């Protein structure tokens, strides 16, 4: 299903040549938009509307900063562009849904699943609800994955030991499975998986999680003291702090993907919420497995087909954004290669 996305992306990445310099965040954003539009929205978008949808989502993403979050209705250009983009995206989704209904077309994508879904009481989903859910899903799926895959690249390209380990893992995969990368093969890329997971821990996309307690609970601190929290209270987990707690993660400021491997498993030391990059509880991210899958597909493809070097300094975090992303341009030099399996 994803091969056409890579073919389309390769043309952009290569820009006609075998080597060059590209801005990594932008490239990853494009491939993730291609994947999202194929898997979530369907063929119509990827074939005919990709450029427009890409621009509209950039308009929405521009509105994901702290000012727009605190003052969502303030008449500033970012809020205006976000709202205009949302209206146009809804129109596009309505058109796709209506044309599928008119032509009796059935596609294999999430949009179709939402269109065919029913509420518990038997009612069909409304057009407005489907459009809202699909736009939210694309945003949730593409934006955070772009950020985590860019941090993964920046971390790997500056840590030779782990880059070599991931490349060796790809060689091993190629020896065994050639280029037949399916779901099962992706689940065998354990080193790459840990490198992505560790990039997420070091650079969490989420500033904090805000949840409301549904019942009275008791929380025990590490020294043993207990705190009662009444039902209805709002709790905030500052993920960028909790993912660096030194009694859970040894040398938390060091990029060390092996901390998740058997024998160490530091993400389990503090209980099930030690690793909260994807949230937790009843509102935990439902797209976690999908996110790992797409980031693994992208980086395994890149490492097998390109030699890549980071040419700009290691990026800083952009604290003005609501979803924390690498600040400024992340430039990489690429040269096409075919990774030899022996
Ligand atoms: C690396 C990529 C991703 C990261 C870091 C991420 C992170 C998160 C976080 C922190 C939350 C809030 C959880 C909480 O409040 O406890 C969340 C919620 C959510 N995510 Fe993700 N996510 C990613 C990818 C995806 C993908 C690929 C999808 C779907 C295609 C997705 C769909 C959602 C949805 C629908 C929610 C709301 C869940 C609810 O409120 O019940 N996410 N995500």
From TrEMBL:
GO molecular function annotation: heme binding; iron ion binding; monooxygenase activity; oxidoreductase activity; oxidoreductase activity, acting on paired donors, with incorporation or reduction of molecular oxygen
Pfam families the UniProt entry points to: p450
Gene3D superfamilies, per database record: Cytochrome P450
Cofactor(s) this protein requires: heme
Sequence positions that bind heme: 285
Membrane-traversing stretches: none
Family recorded in the similarity comment: Belongs to the cytochrome P450 family.
PROSITE patterns, alphabetized: CYTOCHROME_P450
Protein's recorded name: Cytochrome P450
Example GO BP: sterol biosynthetic process
Keywords associated with the record: Heme, Iron, Metal-binding, Monooxygenase, Oxidoreductase
């Amino acid at each position: 299903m994803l091969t056409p996305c890579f073919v389309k992306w390769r043309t952009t990445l290569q820009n006609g040549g075998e080597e060059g310099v590209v801005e990594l965040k932008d490239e990853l954003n494009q491939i993730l938009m291609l994947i999202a539009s194929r898997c979530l929205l369907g063929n119509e978008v990827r074939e005919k509307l990709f450029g427009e949808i890409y621009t509209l989502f950039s308009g929405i993403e521009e509105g994901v900063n702290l000012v727009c979050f605190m003052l969502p209705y303030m008449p500033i250009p970012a809020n205006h562009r976000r709202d205009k983009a949302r209206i146009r995206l809804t129109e596009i989704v309505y058109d796709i849904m209506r044309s599928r209904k008119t032509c009796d077309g059935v596609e294999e994508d999430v949009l179709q699943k939402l269109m065919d879904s029913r509420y518990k009481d038997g009612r069909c989903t409304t057009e407005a609800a489907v459009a809202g859910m699909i736009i939210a899903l694309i945003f949730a799926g593409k934006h955070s994955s772009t950020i985590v895959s860019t941090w993964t690249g920046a971390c790997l390209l500056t840590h030779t030991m782990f880059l070599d380990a991931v490349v060796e893992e790809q060689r091993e995969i190629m020896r065994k499975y050639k280029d037949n990368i399916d779901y099962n093969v992706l689940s065998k890329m354990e080193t790459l998986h840990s490198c992505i997971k560790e990039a997420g821990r070091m650079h969490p996309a989420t500033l904090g999680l805000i949840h409301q307690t549904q019942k009275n609970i008791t929380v025990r601190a590490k020294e043993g003291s207990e705190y009662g929290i009444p039902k209805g209270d709002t709790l905030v987990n500052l993920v960028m702090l909790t993912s660096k707690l030194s009694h859970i993660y040894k040398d938390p400021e060091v990029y060390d993907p092996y901390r998740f491997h058997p024998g160490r498993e530091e993400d389990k030391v503090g209980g099930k919420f030690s690793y909260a990059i994807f949230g937790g509880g009843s509102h935990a991210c439902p797209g976690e497995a999908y996110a790992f899958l797409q980031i693994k597909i992208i980086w395994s493809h890149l490492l097998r087909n390109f030699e890549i070097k980071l040419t700009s300094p290691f990026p800083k975090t952009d604290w003005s954004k609501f979803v924390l992303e690498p600040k400024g341009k992340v430039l990489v030099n690429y040269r096409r290669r075919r990774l030899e399996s022996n």
